[in-house]
Design a protein that fits this description.
There is one protein chain. By secondary structure, the protein is α+β, with helices and mostly antiparallel strands. The chain has two domains: about 200 residues, BirA Bifunctional Protein, domain 2 (2-Layer Sandwich), CATH 3.30.930; about 45 residues, SH3 type barrels (Roll). Helix content is about 25%, strand content about 30%. The chain is built from five helices and twelve strands. Helix 3 crosses helix 5. It is globular and about 60 Å long.
């Protein structure tokens, strides 16, 4: 069941004193959005990697402006402030990199968990969503990486919009929220440093976990139009390649993916 309260002081000290370059960790019982708090810190000149974590959000956001809902203490809600130094073409890979780091972290929560990624970075346990990521660029080349992981939603009422969601506890993983925070932040930091040195090197690992590849999909793009076909590849810039009915291909750089049943 949901458990509220701040992370242990020893855990925070360990993150700040560790080798991963964590500059700050701040916890809030309630914020409007951890991304908004991290963005405000960036505007004040805060260094990377800054971590903002909260028990609850009143205006949490998912991709495409959707609201991210979570009862207090039931999820790990955090944002990371980064200032990446990569070629401009590699910036679009940050959401996928974060998805891979998250999947690797959840893997360590239990070897039997059916962890997969739906392009670009929804974390699935089986076919049900258990976590989401929202990366937002900021002036001056900074970015905030927002992550919401459903830790324990047992007994939590959920409306129709959340009927397909699940949590780590419901999948059989008894996870301490703050231990998950420490592992995720450290795992992300390691992947992030390696990405800046070799921006595309992680993509093979991402592709191996991306359950979208090889499947029939319908992608709804931001303009509202849809692309239907078979997802065949993830391009070096992170775009999803979809083979459509006439045999041609469409590169999708942003959109919502629905996995379809094979015909």
């Amino acid at each position: 069941m949901p458990v509220t309260g701040p992370p242990p002081a020893a855990l925070v000290r360990g993150l700040l004193a560790g080798p991963d370059g964590i500059a700050a960790v701040e916890w809030h019982p309630v914020v409007d959005s951890t991304n908004a708090v991290a963005a405000a810190a960036a505007a004040r000149g805060a260094p990377e990697i800054g971590v903002v974590v909260a028990d609850a959000q009143t205006a949490g956001r998912g991709r495409h402006g959707r609201r991210w809902q979570s009862p207090p203490g039931a999820s790990l809600l955090l944002s990371l402030l980064v200032r990446p130094v990569v070629p401009p073409a590699a910036v679009s890979l940050l959401p996928l990199l974060t998805g891979l780091a998250l999947a690797e972290t959840v893997d360590r929560c239990g070897p039997a968990l059916p962890v997969a990624l739906k392009w670009p970075n929804d974390l699935l346990l089986g076919s049900r969503k258990a976590a989401g990521i929202l990366v937002e660029g900021l002036p001056g080349g900074a970015a905030v990486v927002g992550i919401g992981v459903n830790v324990d939603w047992r007994g939590v009422e959920r409306g129709a919009e959340l009927a397909g969601a699940t949590s780590l506890a419901e999948a059989g993983a008894a996870v301490d929220r703050w231990a998950l925070l420490a592992d995720l932040v450290s795992g992300f930091a390691r992947r992030y440093r390696a990405w800046q040195a070799l921006p595309a090197a992680f993509l093979d690992g991402y592709r191996a976990r991306c359950t979208t590849l090889g499947r029939p999909v319908m992608v709804t793009r931001r303009a509202g139009d849809t692309v239907t076909g078979v997802a065949t590849a993830v391009r070096v810039d992170g775009a999803l390649i979809v083979r459509v009915d006439d045999g041609g291909t469409v590169a999708v750089t942003a959109g919502d993916v629905e996995h379809l049943r094979p015909a």
